[in-house]
Amino acid sequence: MRNGQDRARELENAVVKETEDKINGRKRTVVERTTDSTYESNATTGHNCVDENIYGHDNDDDVGRFLYLEGVEYIMWCTYDVHFYASFALLELFPRIELNIQRDFARAVLCEDGRKVRFLAEGNWGIRKVYGAVPHDLGTHDPWYEMNAYNIHDTSKWKDLNPKFVLQVYRDFAATGDLQFGIDVWPAVRAAMEYMDQFDRDGDGLIENDGFPDQTYDTWTVHGVSTYCGCLWLAALQAAAAMALELGDRDFAETCKRKFLKAKPAFEEKLWNGSYFNYDSGSSGNSKSIQADQLAGQWYTASSGLPSLFEDSKIKSALRKVYDFNVMKVKGGRMGAVNGMHPNGKVDETCMQSREVWTGVTYGVAATMILAGMEEEAFTTAEGIFLAGWSEDGYG
Predict the structure, then answer these.
(1) CA 144 to CA 357: how far, in whole Å?
(2) At the top level of its lineage, which domain of life is listed (predicted)?
(3) Cβ–Cβ contacts within 10 Å for residue 23, how many?
């Protein structure tokens, strides 16, 4: 995989001329594809999610449609918040399937389903799928057409799904070099990024969480700026800027770059405490907790060949804190990384999820450590979740 800066530099001064639109046979520039009247119309009203035409796979790379379950107890297809952790395997082994899953989600971003749904946690009502929001899943009973089977929270207000979409799309685009894929999904990437602007409440360039569990840790409440969603957002801004340059959408690239340069210092000012990034900028009892997943955005940034989000010293310091506390203070490192730890060395028991160990998160933390040059700590961390899952208390 080439370095993202090199890729951007190679194309930055190139004139994007014509690309063949495989869907309708016309030739248009890449930028035209994202700003034409059709796109603008969809930005206002969205496609109807039950319109079969928007899900057609009429392209030369059609490998069919693919669904998978997160687990036997979560019967929702392609839960996207955890596809973020699992998708590396698909990209390595079955890249065309991975790209088609991303195409399905790209189409989903650009549609709206106005059917009413009651959300269980808050008891409020909303619509099933909001235009511009990445769905939590592709559905259960009627996948692709009745999305968001998950109804605990209104996931159109979640802060991690849209950045995760942008990061996965850019990673796949960079890894495969598939220009047509990039062209196909670019309107959805733009829409997903623009959708998030509503969550910057104070104009500092950062998205803010809204005081409920509005991300994949859906019992773990977040207030204000959070290390998890904020870091994902910084990474998404950088990835969207790089992808925009490669596809010739220079105005949008500059917009994302300006936001990134504004948001990054605000993020560090609000969350960096000298050794790691606080859980969030609120004043709750767990706001200073050590979250294992605090550098999820940096994981994707480094994996995609983009410049690091933070200084190397801060990245290593935060990872060292996670290793010393979340990994080594739980059964001597033989469990993986617990999601949350208090600075006093005790597990954060704010909720069920803060005290759990998640496989995907642990392997993601280990991967981030490897990318930061901390190989010994990385393999100790990964070994812990392997032992817990397969050799000691698991399926081995």
Answers:
(1) 31
(2) Eukaryota
(3) 10
**37-45 and 179-195 helices cross at what angle (nearest 10)?**
40
Helix (H, G, I), strand (E, B) or coil at 25: coil
Specify the DSSP class assigned to residue 126: E
The answer to whether residues 166 and 193 touch, using CB atoms and an 8 Å cutoff, is yes
Tokens 């047509």 belong to 180
**Hey, is 221 helix, strand or coil?**
coil
Sign for the CA dihedral angle at 9, 13, 17, 23 comes to positive
Low-confidence ranges of the chain (pLDDT < 70): 1-62, 394-396
Give Cβ neighbours of residue 44 (< 8 Å, ≥ 6 apart). none
pTM for this one? 0.88
CA–CA dist 25, 211 (Å, integer)? 48
Judge whether 228 and 217 are in contact, CB under 8 Å.
yes
Residues 6+ apart with CB under 8 A from 5: 305, 306, 307
Using CA atoms, how far residue 23 sits from 17, 20, 57, 59, 384, in Å, is 18, 9, 9, 7, 48
pLDDT tens for residues 52-63?
A: 444 444 555 668
Q: Which of 345, 325, 335 is nearest to 381 (CA)?
A: 335
Residues in CB range of 43: below 8 A, 6 or more apart: 131, 132, 191
Spatial neighbors of 49 by CB under 8 A, at least 6 apart, are: 108, 111, 112, 113, 128, 129, 145, 146, 147
- CB 297, CB 234: distance < 8 Å: yes
